Amino acid sequence: MGPAGVPGWPVEPSDFKSEPPARRDVAQARGHSDNSEATTMDWNRIQGNWKQAQGQIKEKWGKLTDDDLATINGQREQLEGIIQKRYGLAKDMVRDDIDAWLKSRP
């Protein structure tokens, strides 16, 4: 018995049956994948093969121009910004779209 007869006082650490969700669980609950390490590695491949990747990017996001691709020059943040501008999408939607595209690539 705790103070003034309050049952369960003091709370023992063993009283907590679950731990707070891990970062990945929170990201997934929000609809975001937390594969930042994997997508970074995939994006590094895109940067290294930028000339080849441009065709695939134009296939996926047809509103991008050759000038856009020259401006992007393998920089993911630039790609995100230009896609946002061309398609009028929110930043997190664009990020998720790029992540999904990266995962779908062989």
Arithmetic mean pLDDT? 78
Rg of Cα set: 22 Å
- Give the percentage of residues in beta strands: under 5%
Instruction: Measure the end-to-end span.
Output: 61 Å
Shape: globular
Secondary-structure content class:
mainly alpha
The CATH homologous superfamily is called: YjbJ
Q: What fraction, in percent, of the residue positions are helical? A: 55-70%
At the first level of CATH, the class is Mainly Alpha
Poorly predicted ranges (pLDDT <50, ≥5 residues)? 18-33
> How many strands in all?
0
CATH topology: Protein Yjbj, Chain: A
Number of helices: 6
Number of domains: 1
Largest sheet geometry:
none
Order of helices and strands: HHHHHH
Please state the second-level CATH architecture.
Orthogonal Bundle
What does this structure look like?
The chain has 106 residues and is mostly helical. The chain is globular and about 70 Å long. The protein has six helices and no strands. The longest helix is centred in the C-terminal third of the chain and has 14 residues, at 91-104.
Please outline what is shown here.
With 106 residues, the chain is mainly alpha-helical. The protein has six helices and no strands.
Features:
106 residues; mainly alpha; Protein Yjbj, Chain: A; globular
Task: Describe the protein's topology.
Blueprint: H1 23-29, H2 36-48, H3 50-60, H4 66-72, H5 76-87, H6 91-104
Helix pairs in contact: 4-5, 5-6
